[in-house]
Amino acid sequence: MNIRRVDGSAGDADYGVIGGGYVGYRQPDPRIAEAITRALGDARTVLNVGAGAGSYESTALEVTAVEPSASMRAQRPAHLPPAIDGVAEDLPFADASFDAAMSTFSVHQWKDVRAGLREMRRVARGPVVLLTCDPDLVRDFWLYEYAPAVLDTEAGRYPSVATISEALGGEVTVEPVPIPADCTDGFNEAYYARPERLLDPGARQANSAWSFVDAAVRERYAETLRHALESGAWDRRHGALREQGTLNGSLVLVRSVPAA
Length: 260
What we know:
The protein is an alpha/beta fold. Helix content is about 30%, strand content about 15%.
C-alpha cells in the first residue's frame, strides 16, 4: 500500500518538505525533451504518471497528468492543465485509454514499481516511455567520492532496467541519454561540469536522495566538496569535464511497445 503523506506524496520522499523550490532548479532540458518526444512517436494523447510540476509535458500533445503530491501539483505552471491526484499503482482510467504513457524521474518514488508499470502498460495502447537512471551506473559519477551515502541511496531506490523491462513486457529498448554540460534539469549528474552548483542547498534539496541523508552528514559532504574545489583538488581529478560537452552517465530512456 502506498504511503500518503500530509501533502499527498506517495512512496519514500516527502515533497511537502523538499519540493517547495523544485521548479527553480528542475527545469526541463530541451535536448532531453526531444529524446522523449521521439520515443513517444506519433502519440497524440499521453498520460504522464508522477507528473510533478509538469516537466517534459509537451503542449503540442493532449497530456493527462497524475501526481499525488499537493506541493508539486501547486507548482505546475498556468499553461499546463491541473494534475489529477492519484498514484501509479491505481490509475483511474479504463484499459487502452491513451496513445502512450510516460514518466520522468518518478519510477524510483513508487511504492510498488511493478504494479505501477503494469498499470501504465494497461492504460496505454502504444509506447510506455520512462526517463530514469540505471542504478548500476549511478555510483560511477564523481559525486560518489564526496557524497557516497547520497549515491548509495540513489542507486538503492532506482529499479533495475531489467525489472522495468520485465514489468512492462512487449518490445523494450533502452537508450542512453547524453547529459548536456549546461543541462537545465538539475539532477545530480546535470552538474557534472559545474560542481559549484551542488554547494547550493537548494540544488541539493531538489534532488530527493539528499533528503535521506542526515542533515549533519549532508553539510559535511558539502564542505568536503567545497574544500576540494577551493584547493583545486576537484579540478586536478575531474577538471577535464568542464570542457566536455555531454556526459554519458546513468540517465536512460526505456521504451516499451506492445509485442506485434
